[in-house]
Inverse folding.
């Protein structure tokens, strides 16, 4: 470290960790630069300001008021400032064949030793290296062969204080034929100067099915940088739907490897941005073997001085014949100060493939608005109806009807504010 190292504000919090691989990760943190606008993957997302202030270590033993439970059966797991809170979580041992617990309690166990760190490379990504150098805690989800988790797992991440560096770390492992659904919700209580830097690794076994729903509604909340590394085995199915309603600086990076024949990945995203919210969705789907499929759809509405960034890449290896991959990003701008940057990418080295990608940026259809207003609908209601119709295509992909109803209500409430 030198006196001019911009990472000097976070390095003291990354030293002394005993998590696996922490020493090697810390060395990478020292070596890697802070991304700038000259770094292609971070061209439109400025993160230098995250290092302009010192941070404190996060505290988990603080009083929090939990939100009302979701209106359907779930297993609730609570983390406060990155720390697992057993006293606020449900009984996590009520179904055989499943481990739902604090990851920190299982670091010496065989499955964690075998898979931890395998999908979150630290050699290129500064924020992943920072997390690997000193994670706080996170969720371990282990589902054994053929077991289906009975209720959705609702993970609440609550951030309560300003100027903390919070680094959650999750490891999900689904064995052959297992099934699980996880709802991950981020809530912040007026913490604009906090910094949440999370990493999640997901291993989807042969014929297994993992569904992740991610909800970000952190009003006046922290900067939130996240990385998801995913590997899907033969005939496995992975899907993630990311809904961003509020936040300050948000970066959602998802990297999927389709590693077995007939594996499938589905990535969906909705973002409704106003104020000065900045949301960057950065995805990579690697078709590494033949006969895999992927489907990616992100849609957003950006108002005020909000900014949306989408960068999605589909990579088809030379041997990945009979790949089927679809990717789309569509945006509506409301107002002259809103910004959208979108960059869909296809890189194909096989010849027997069927792939498509595309992006659009536009405004609400004036003819449609005129049609609705001519039938007595107010302009505000007409705009809301058209925005709802635009987003519905993504929401309809959610298979869990009860969660879909909750999500639809939240989205409609947000649309009324745009």
């Amino acid at each position: 470290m030198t006196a001019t190292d911009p990472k000097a504000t976070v390095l003291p919090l990354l030293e002394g960790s005993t998590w696996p691989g922490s020493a090697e990760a810390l060395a990478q943190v020292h070596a890697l630069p802070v991304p700038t606008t000259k770094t292609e993957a971070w061209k439109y997302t400025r993160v230098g300001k995250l290092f302009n202030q010192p941070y404190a270590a996060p505290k988990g033993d603080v009083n929090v008021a939990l939100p009302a439970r979701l209106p359907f059966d779930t297993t609730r797991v609570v983390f406060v400032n990155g720390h697992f809170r057993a006293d606020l979580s449900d009984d996590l041992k009520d179904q055989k064949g499943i481990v739902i617990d604090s990851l920190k309690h299982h670091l010496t166990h065989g499955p964690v030793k075998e898979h931890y760190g395998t999908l979150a490379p630290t050699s290129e990504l500064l924020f992943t290296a920072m997390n690997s150098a000193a994670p706080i805690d996170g969720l371990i989800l282990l589902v054994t062969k053929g077991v289906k988790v009975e209720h959705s797992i609702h993970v609440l991440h609550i951030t309560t204080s300003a100027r903390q560096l919070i680094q959650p770390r999750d490891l999900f492992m689904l064995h052959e034929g297992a099934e699980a659904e996880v709802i991950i919700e981020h809530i912040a209580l007026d913490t604009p100067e906090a910094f949440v830097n999370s990493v999640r690794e997901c291993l989807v076994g042969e014929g297994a099915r993992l569904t992740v729903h991610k909800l970000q509604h952190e009003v006046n909340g922290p900067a939130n940088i996240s990385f998801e590394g995913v590997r899907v085995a033969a005939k496995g199915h992975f899907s993630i739907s990311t809904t961003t309603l509020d936040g300050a600086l948000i970066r959602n990076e998802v990297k999927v490897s389709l590693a077995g024949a007939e594996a499938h990945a589905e990535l969906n995203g909705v973002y409704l941005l106003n104020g000065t919210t900045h949301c960057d969705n950065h995805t990579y789907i690697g078709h590494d073997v033949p006969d895999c499929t992927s489907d990616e759809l992100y849609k957003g509405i950006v108002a005020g001085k909000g900014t949306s960034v989408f960068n999605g890449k589909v990579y088809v290896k030379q041997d990945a014949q009979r790949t089927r991959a679809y990717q789309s990003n569509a945006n509506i701008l409301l107002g002259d100060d809103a910004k959208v940057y979108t960059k869909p990418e296809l890189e194909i080295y096989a010849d027997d493939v069927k792939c498509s990608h595309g992006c659009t940026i536009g405004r609400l259809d004036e003819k449609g608005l005129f049609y609705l207003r001519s039938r007595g609908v107010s302009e505000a209601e007409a705009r809301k109806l058209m925005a709802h119709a635009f987003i519905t295509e993504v929401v309809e992909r959610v298979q869990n009807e009860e969660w879909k109803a909750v999500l639809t209500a939240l989205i409609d409430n947000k649309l009324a504010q745009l």
